[in-house]
Design brief:
Elements: E1 2-5, H1 9-20, E2 29-36, E3 39-47, E4 53-60, H2 67-81, E5 86-92, H3 96-104, E6 108-117, E7 120-128
Parallel strand pairs: 4-5
Antiparallel strand pairs: 1-2, 2-3, 3-4, 5-7, 6-7
C-alpha cells in the first residue's frame, strides 16, 4: 500500500539526494514523497526559494498510482501556498527519457546551459503557475 509522505522532509530529501546524485546540502528546502511498504519510491525536493521561483528535483524509483497526487500536492504547495510564479528543473541533455517524462508531466523547455552537466549540457525546464496541469481549476 502506498502513501504520501508530507511531514518528513529530511527523510525524503536524503533519499532524493541519493537518487539524483546531489552531494551538497539542500539548504532551506521542502520535500514530499511516496512510500510503498516502508520504502520511498518517489520524491520531490524544492529549494532555493526566492519569492517568485524555486528549484525542483524529482526522483522516481518505481512508478506509483500516487504520483498524480504527489504532483498535485506539490503544485498546490508551490503555487497556491508559496505564491510562486514558476518552478525550475534541470536535467542533463544526455538523459532524453527524463526530459521526455518531465515534458509529459507539464514541464517546458526554457534553455540549454552549455557544459553545465558533468558529461555535457544541462536542459533548463520551467513550469509556470498559470499553465500548471496539476493545479485545481476551481
Amino acid at each position: 500500500m502506498s502513501k504520501l509522505i508530507l511531514d518528513n522532509k529530511y527523510r525524503v530529501g536524503l533519499w532524493v539526494a541519493q537518487e539524483v546524485g546531489q552531494t551538497a546540502d539542500w539548504g532551506n528546502f521542502q520535500a514530499f514523497g511516496i512510500e510503498r511498504d516502508g520504502e520511498i519510491v518517489a520524491g520531490i525536493v524544492m529549494h532555493m526559494f526566492n519569492g517568485a521561483n524555486a528549484v525542483c528535483h524529482v526522483a522516481i524509483k518505481r512508478p506509483s498510482k500516487m504520483l498524480k497526487e504527489l504532483l498535485r500536492v506539490t503544485a498546490d504547495y508551490l503555487f497556491n501556498q508559496c505564491k510562486l510564479k514558476r518552478i525550475t528543473g534541470m536535467v542533463p541533455t544526455n538523459e532524453p527519457r527524463t526530459i521526455a517524462f518531465d515534458k509529459h508531466i507539464g514541464w517546458e523547455e526554457e534553455f540549454v546551459m552549455k557544459d553545465a552537466a558533468p558529461n555535457g549540457d544541462m536542459q533548463v525546464l520551467v513550469m509556470w503557475a498559470d499553465r500548471c496541469p496539476w493545479l485545481s481549476k476551481e
